[in-house]
Amino acid sequence: MNVQSYDWNVVWKKLPWKKFQKNLYRLQSRIYRNVKLGKLNRAKKLQRFLIRSKSAIFLAVRQVTQLNKGKRTAGIDGQKSLNPQERVKLADALHQKGPKWEHKGLRKINIPKPDGTQRSLHIPTLGDRAYQCLLKYALEPAHEATFLAQSHGFRLGRSVHEALQNIAGCIVSGKTDTWILDGDIEKCFDRINHQYLLNNLICDKTVYRAIQQVLKAGVEPEFTSTQTGTPQGGVISPLLANIALHGIEGKRLYRYKNDRKQICRASIIRYADDFVVICKDLTKMGEIKAEIETKLAERGLRLNERKTRLIKASEGFDFLGHHCQLYPDKVFRMKPSKESITRLLRKVKHIVRKSRHLSWETLISKLNPLLRGWWNFYKFCGNRSLSDSRVRKTLLYIIRKWFLRKRGKTVKDFVQFYKTEGQKLVSTGNCPTEKWIKVQGEKSYFDGDLNYWTKREKPFYNSIYSKKLTQQKFQCCHCGLNLISEVESLELHHVDGNHNNWKLSNLQILHRSCHQQQTIHQERIKQGKRATNTKSRKQGCGQTPIEPECSKLDFLW
To answer: Cα(109)–Cα(75) distance, rounded to whole angstroms?
Structure first.
């Protein structure tokens, strides 16, 4: 069979993705279940089987080259993207080499942090990212079985709002003497002890050696072997950091020396390298802090004394972009922090400054996605009225200034224009305040209860999304699998391609990968590539492409 005669776009599209996803989830669920039951040897055998599975390999390649947000970032080889034929070749190479895959060096990129300093990202090549994604598929379910409910960062089904609700539940309303230790780990990703991390992995020797190779990959320009830290910018880096920090969080019970029957309870809630300790007794805070510092020292880490502080709940503290405080009326409330509001307004000013030559409609269409995302993120705050009014007033002042400079009219003209003719900014009325629904206990995505995770999506969307999710029975219209945004982002598809037609009959909720395969989107891609294909045929580059049947794809292996 002449492989060159195939249309590789069709080959990639017609691969049995639904079957691949079912196979991968079944393997991951078995790994999770065996670790929960203490059958580690059986779980390690399943991990070896998973990294050689073609289902996992193809899904890892698709995740890295098509679905990830940073898919266009190049490694040291300068390659930013792969066409369908190159994706199949990469999957074939991963299948043949398997554990013997040679990890290349990392490209170093510096990005600015909010405090003005620089953060170094170490970017692997596309092939190395696919290999890391494959290792992540094998490691994640095994360690999800051991993670505690107080750990929230970079986990499926957990989020910032989950951590904040956990904090709100621990700070009992009406107790103003609750003490808070707001902690931060200094350069966590750069200083993790490799040996400690490798000793705490739940995996067989094959995966162990592969993770060791990922950790020791050199960084340009010297490419010398790294001795500490996990490379930020890699696919598996957040998972490795969670494995290293596991055990710091949790609930603690402390007894007093004078009265052994009296118990002091403390809760440690962690999101990645940020954590909060909640305790009523100030005298026990020193003991808890010393215990945390000892555990961090074992991992090669230490606290950032500049950012770590001990305060009362009534004074308030900032955590994950929210300001949390126990108010004088004995009620604990959360609202957007001043830093997050300032950051939003700075972005808005930058967009307006770059849009002086654009029309009003174009400016509003640029601002609305940013504002809608910000309102939706903070819609689970129970007390955001003051911050909302401040943001609205500042936004109107910024766009009014742009309007007066653009058209040279008075403030009354702007008010009349905005009320009658102008396209409106997204307001808080479009994103009303809602209550976050906490995850039950230590439930995990890999426990096999997909119905729970699917139906949990509905309350977090607006009325259109909720109606469509119920109408579609929480299943994708393209592949028929469950719609879970934690696993793969969901997108709204307009069947006729008209984004102004918002009738329910014209809308579908799809996985991002399924949305990319819709005919109306594929036609637009083909129109851009038609000239290139015509040129290659004139030069005699192979035969006319053939659309293969699914049963004829065995030649790939």
So the answer is: 10
Secondary structure (3-state) at 219: strand
Residue 516 half-sphere exposure, CB side, CA atoms within 13 Å? 13
What is the residue-wise DSSP string for 294-330?
HHHHHTT--B-TTT-EEEETTT-EEETTEEEEE-TTS
179-184: strand order across its sheet: 250-255, 263-271, 274-279, 179-184, 309-312
Composition of the chain by helix, strand, coil, percent to 5: 50, 15, 35
Closest CA to 101 of 63, 45, 57: 57
Give the pLDDT score at 459.
62
Structure token digits, residue 475:
């299943």
Q: What is the reported pTM?
A: 0.86
**At residue 199, does pLDDT exceed 80?**
yes
Sign of CA dihedral 92, 69, 212, 204: negative
Could you tell me the CA-to-CA distances from 102 to 34, 127, 333 in Å, in that order?
Answer: 30, 10, 51
Q: Phi and psi of 206, rounded to 5°?
A: -65, -50
Q: State which amino acid sits at residue 221.
A: P
**Residue 508: in which H helix or E strand, if any?**
strand 507-511
Q: In the numeric block, which tokens belong to residue 106?
A: 């990392």
Tokens of 464: 């259109």
* Chain center to CA of 390: 29
Phi-psi region of 247 (alpha: psi -120 to 50; beta: other; left: phi over 0): left
User: Which tokens hold the place of 93?
Assistant: 């190479």
Question: In a 3-state reduction of DSSP, which class is residue 350?
Answer: helix
Q: Are 456 and 179 in contact (CB under 8 A)?
A: no
3-state secondary structure of 438: coil
Q: How many CA atoms lie less than 13 Å away from 280 in the CB half-sphere?
A: 12
Distance (Å, rounded) from C-alpha 393 to C-alpha 240? Answer: 44
| 427 compared with 226, residue with greater pLDDT | 226
Distance CA 344, CA 372 (A): 12
- Encoded amino acid at 335, one letter: K
205 φ, ψ (degrees, to nearest 5): -65, -35
Cβ atoms of 362 and 355 within 8 Å: the answer is yes
Locate 402 and state its tokens: 């742009």
Q: Determine how many CB atoms are found less than 10 A away from the CB of residue 520.
A: 11
- Average pLDDT score over the chain: 83
Structure tokens at 333: 């409330």
- Cα 54 to Cα 134: distance, rounded to the nearest angstrom: 10
The conformation of residue 63, written as its DSSP 8-state character, comes to I
Structure tokens at 293: 């510092």
Q: Distance between CA 368 and CA 419 in Å, rounded?
A: 17
> What whole-number distance in Å separates Cα of residue 122 and Cα of residue 489?
25
* pLDDT over 90 at 297, yes or no: yes
How sure is the predictor about 219, in pLDDT bands with cuts at 50, 70 and 90?
A: confident
Burial (CB < 10 A; 0-12, 13-18, 19+), residue 73, is middle
Half-sphere exposure of 552 (CA within 13 A, CB side): 11
Contact assessment for residue 156 and residue 445, using Cβ atoms and an 8 Å cutoff: yes
**Given the structure tokens 């002086």, which residue do they identify?**
356
- The larger pLDDT score, comparing residue 477 to residue 40, is at 40
* 555: Cα within 13 Å, side-chain hemisphere: 12
